[in-house]
Amino acid sequence: MEFKAFKMDGLGNDFIIIDQRSQSIDLNKQQIIKICDRNFIGCDQLIYIKKNRKIDAGLEFYNSDGSQSGACGNGTRCVAYFLSKEKNKKEITVWTTSGNLKSTIISVNEVETEIGEPKLNWDQIPLSQNINTKNLGLKLTDNDGKEFIGGIAVNVGNPHVVFFLENIKNFNLEKQGPEIENNNMFPDKCNLTLAEKINKNLIKVRVWERGAGLTKACGTAACATAVAANLDNLSNSRTEIEFSLGKLIINIDKKNSIHMKGPVSNIKEIKINL
Q: Which residues lie across from 70 on neighbouring strands?
């Protein structure tokens, strides 16, 4: 089976995009895993673009382990840019399982997406029990053996846990990421972000994504970090979230809706042969 797809990324957070509007491609879990494998083609997530009669398109997101994801901020920005080229317009609205998301093309290769209001209650994250979402009591251990207890839970289309730490490089995220992701506290698993506040306008992060592992960037993690920082008065309503390859700008408006702005790559057409 050979078919056309597209590859894009936002700050290195990369995606294979399959347009189901123009071709009948419906992959099974093992085929998704194979495409996402970096020994084959490789990406953090696979995205389907689907027909939608009311708005520009519908989106479905799949992680590299084949599981479905409710939201993907950078992926949404990338597809919005893709659709803007096709439709020759600067505002794009897409359906996701987490709701409709509106994106605006700011300039060449720069897109802003409104993610909406965060969910903060324990049953909205969701957690397996009613506990304080501002301090989950989870444990991380740095490379020197020092323990840190905490974790702030935020849902921005998918569940996130954010730890604010002094030196995020001093943690083995490949080991502790899957431990937190698969903790019994999270019935739907979770993403883990290690955040280091530089000042009220800048936070550096490292991310472990559920179903994908270590990624160079994660849009919803940036949003969750900004929300968590805002809750603890660690940041302003407009915050820059810095990943290894660049920054996303997160703005929380007066209605508590999250806006995420940042770069996207050019669109590369590829052929996939399974």
A: none
